[in-house]
Design brief:
317 residues; mainly alpha
């Protein structure tokens, strides 16, 4: 038992020393996609002693499998016909194309189990680092997308307000028309109703966007403020939000609209631009909560909880 423990300690020490060396020798590529995260650690692992050992084994296995199917292909009627029709480099090109078409997927499938072993070695050694880098990339991507979405929704809201104003003006100008008056006395103008419906979706999207931006802004302050200042900001963001004093009615309406949009999307029905913005804002908000909430200071989280409970406290006897 003692020998095994000593060996384990030596292996761990060797790994630490090897990683220290790789920190100096290996420069990872900049991360512009999730694949870059995996490729960075795959390339780093290939420089380790264990990585080189497995790479050599993989190369031998791959050659053995390829040779097996290459011999089958060379003995096939298909190759015989190609060799009668083509010569030299042209034969090599045509034969390689035919070989890949016939055996490419078969070879890849046979190599999968060996590749899985290699990948498990990578994640066993670098899994924690990979998760950290993936989370960092997603956070950066979500933040960038949120910034774009914020500008788009604000612009859409300005445009819809302008349409509503223009439609109201048109209706006022037509107020001398008896038919128009009769219609307006029985129901709302359908064009105006459509614009107001679109505005509701966009306002719901803006609420989610504002919440997301608040979370990211507060996450950036972690470690720079104390518990009680964070508590005050969290309280202010919820307790003085008018929606908190309407017993959740506005949130309930937004929730129903969002539910309808999600169901519509699930059915594959076409969404209007404002519905797409609401759905996009909801998904982005979920991502922000998932990847940034751990960065919020304890005070801010406590303030949000306290602020949200204020209306219910007032209702209590």
């Amino acid at each position: 038992m003692k020998v095994d423990m000593d060996k384990g300690k030596l292996d761990k020490l060797f790994t630490v020393e090897e990683e220290s060396r790789l920190d100096k020798e290996y420069t990872p590529r900049s991360i512009s996609s999730m694949n870059d995260v995996y490729n960075n650690y795959r390339d780093r692992f290939a420089l380790t002693e264990r990585g080189r050992q497995l790479s050599e084994e993989m190369a031998g296995i791959q050659k053995e499998i390829q040779d097996k199917y290459a011999n089958r292909f060379l003995a096939s009627d298909e190759y015989r016909k190609l060799s009668q029709q083509y010569k030299g480099n042209e034969l090599n090109q045509k034969a390689n194309e035919a070989f890949q078409k016939t055996y490419g997927e078969v070879i890849s499938k046979e190599l999968e189990s060996y590749q899985d072993v290699y990948n498990k070695e990578i994640t066993s050694r670098y899994g924690t680092d990979m998760k950290r880098d993936l989370a960092g990339f997603v956070k950066k991507s979500v933040g960038s997308h949120l910034s774009t979405l914020t500008n788009e929704v604000n612009k859409d809201l300005d445009n819809i307000e302008e349409k509503i104003t223009k439609q109201k003006k048109i209706l006022r100008n037509d107020s001398g028309n008896a038919m128009v008056n009769a219609r307006m006395n029985t129901r709302e103008d359908p064009t105006l109703a459509q614009y107001r419906g679109e505005r509701t979706y966009l306002e719901g999207a803006k609420d989610l966007i504002d919440e997301s931006n608040n979370i990211i802004e507060e996450a950036g302050k972690k470690g720079k403020t104390n518990f009680f200042s964070g508590l005050a900001r969290g309280f202010a963001d919820t307790a003085f939000d008018p929606k908190q004093w309407t017993l959740g009615i506005s949130d309930m309406i937004g929730g129903i609209r969002l539910k309808n949009v999600v169901e519509k999307a699930d059915k594959g029905e076409k969404l209007s631009p404002s519905e797409e913005k609401l759905l996009d804002a909801a998904v982005t908000n979920m991502a922000v909560n998932a990847y940034y909430s751990s960065d919020l200071g304890r005070g801010y989280k406590a303030g949000q909880t306290t602020g949200a409970s204020i209306p219910f406290m007032l209702d209590s006897p």
